[in-house]
Write a structure and sequence with these properties.
The chain is of the alpha/beta class and about 300 residues long. It has helices spanning about 35-45, 60-85, 90-95, 100-120, 165-170, 180-195, 210-230, 250-260, 265-270, 285-295, and strands at about 1-5, 15, 130, 135-140, 140-145, 150, 155-160, 245.
């Protein structure tokens, strides 16, 4: 995956909270060793709402935590985001630095969806991506890095500790690569699309045919739709696509990442058996299938996993 060296990056779509020092207020976070991590990841990896899994502070309200976080971290966020803006200026930076590459992917994904909504007479509401380290406070509750990347519908933001991409390789056996990372971000923005269109309410429950699984597979499909258009969507700054090249090897890396976080793969890897009645995200084959459906069609209408 290559970016246009001369294209400008819009770092205003990313908040950099790395190095804030954890969750303000000492709220409950996720942890407890490998077994605890796996349980959380089976339930929420690439998921929607950490508050659904007991991540809210038991003694302080989410609103209070959010206010405290804002008061304590506004200066730090301004400094961190300013540093990101100074570092990640062009596609050349995205080709050279991991964090700048994620900024570029966020820009590309949101540019596509904005143009898609506009072409249909609708309005797209942008969603920020928040970089954090160790733990973060959100309007869905407090979460640690163990949750993995997630989208919070309460504040319409995507949250990610960039160290997750190393865990994707070491803990889940994915090959990795820049497009595997892009797939993860595009999936999370798929949840944002569901939130904007009202489809988020269809999720829920556990099991191979549950609303939760269908919601996750639809987000995979939406990620594939973006990938289909990634090299043809013109950026606002240059009128040229921000992403200039996606190779078959890139798509293979994305499919490999999708399979690595399938419920069956994770369960077999960490508990030695597969229990479809507890699935929340779908099997490796299903995740690959729905990403491929979106990628081949380039049409969000093909992503009706609820049909």
């Amino acid at each position: 995956m290559q970016f246009d060296d001369d294209a400008g990056l819009d770092t205003s779509e990313v908040q950099d909270r790395r190095g804030w020092g954890g969750v303000p207020g000492g709220g409950k976070t996720v942890g407890g060793g490998l077994i605890g991590l796996v349980v959380v990841l089976v339930a929420t990896l690439l998921g929607v709402d950490p508050a659904l899994f007991g991540l809210s502070d038991g003694t302080t309200t989410t609103t209070q935590n959010a206010a405290r976080a804002g008061a304590a971290g506004a200066q730090g966020q301004a400094q961190s985001s300013g540093q990101l803006a100074a570092t990640c200026k062009t596609g050349k930076d995205a080709n050279a630095r991991d964090d700048c590459r994620i900024v570029a992917v966020v820009n590309s994904v949101q540019t596509y969806w904005q143009q898609y909504f506009t072409s249909r007479g609708s309005r797209y509401t942008p969603a920020s991506t928040v970089f954090f380290s160790n733990a973060v406070s959100t309007r869905c509750g407090n979460a640690s890095s163990a949750v993995g990347p997630f989208y919070c519908p309460g504040d319409s933001q995507v949250y990610i500790d960039l160290g997750f991409f190393q865990e994707l390789r070491t803990k889940f056996g994915a090959e990795g690569g820049p497009f595997a990372e892009a797939y993860v971000l595009a999936h999370e923005y798929g949840h944002h699309i569901q939130n904007l269109t009202g489809q988020m309410t269809k999720g829920g429950g556990q099991g191979a045919n549950s609303g939760s699984v269908k919601l996750e597979l639809q987000a995979d499909c939406y990620a594939g739709v973006w990938a289909h258009h990634a090299t043809t969507t013109p950026s606002a700054g240059t009128g040229r696509p921000l992403i200039t090249t996606l190779t078959p090897a890139d798509i293979t890396d994305g499919l490999d990442a999708a399979a690595a976080v399938g419920d069956d793969r994770i369960q077999q890897r960490y508990q030695g058996r597969v229990t479809p009645e507890s699935w929340t995200h779908g099997s490796a084959a299903q995740r690959q299938q729905w990403f491929t459906t979106g990628y081949r069609s380039g049409d969000p209408a093909t992503c009706n996993t609820f049909a």
